[in-house]
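User: My instructor asked us to take a sequence, write out its structure as C-alpha cells, and then describe one feature of it. I'm not sure where to start. Here is the sequence I was given:
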Amino acid sequence: MKWSEHVWEQSRPIYHKILELPFIKKLMNGTLSKERFFFYLQQDAIYLSEYGKVLIEIASRADNQSYAQTFTRFADDCIFVESALHQSYLNGNNHSTLLTASPSCLLYTGYLHQLLSNISIHIAMAGVLPCFRIYKEVGDYILSHQTKNIDNPYQQWINTYGGEGFEKSVEQATAICDEVAAQSTADEQALMTKAYMQASQLEWMFWNSAWNLEQWPLKETNQ
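Assistant: Let's start with the prediction itself. The C-alpha cells for your sequence are:
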C-alpha cells in the first residue's frame, strides 16, 4: 500500500466528520447563510496567503527540480483561485490584509509554517497534502450528492474543487508525497504521517470555525 493510501484510510474518520458538519450540509443544498460563507471566504483568503508562502518555501527547498516547479505552480494556483472566487463572491473586496485570522485559521497556518522547521522538507509536503485531498473529496461528494436542478448560490465554489482541473493538482501532490515517502526513513515516514493527520484535524477545525463564526474570546484593547 502506498503511503498516501495508508494515511487516507487512517484519516477517513476525520473526513466523514467533516461531511457531517452543518457548514458542508448547507453549502451542499444552497441554504448556507451569506454571513457564514463570507466569513469562510475571508478566513480562506488569509489561509491561502500563508499556504502559498509555505508552498513557495517547499519549492525552494525541494532537491528535485520537477518537484520545485510543481509546488511553485501550486502556489500560483492559490493566488488564481483566491482572486477568482473572491472576485465573484466578494466583488474583490476581501481586504484580507486588514482582517484578523480566527484562532483556528491562525493555528492551522502556524502549524504549516512550523513544519518548515524540520530538516526534511518531506514532512511539510505531507502537511500541505490534506488541503488538496480533503477539498477534492468534499467537492466530489457535494457534486454527487447535491439536489439537482436547484439554483445553488455556491455552485461556482463547488465546481472549483470538484472539477477535473483541481483533480490533476491533487494527483500530482499525492504522487510526489508517495515518491518522497518511499525514499524516506521509517522515522521520517512516521513524521510525515503525523503531519498529515494533524493537518486533517485542522481542516475539520477550519470548516467548523466558519460555521461558528469563530472569534477571539478577548477583544483587542488599546493600551
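For the description part of your assignment, you could build on this observation: The chain has a mean pLDDT of 90. Try explaining in your own words what that tells you about the chain.
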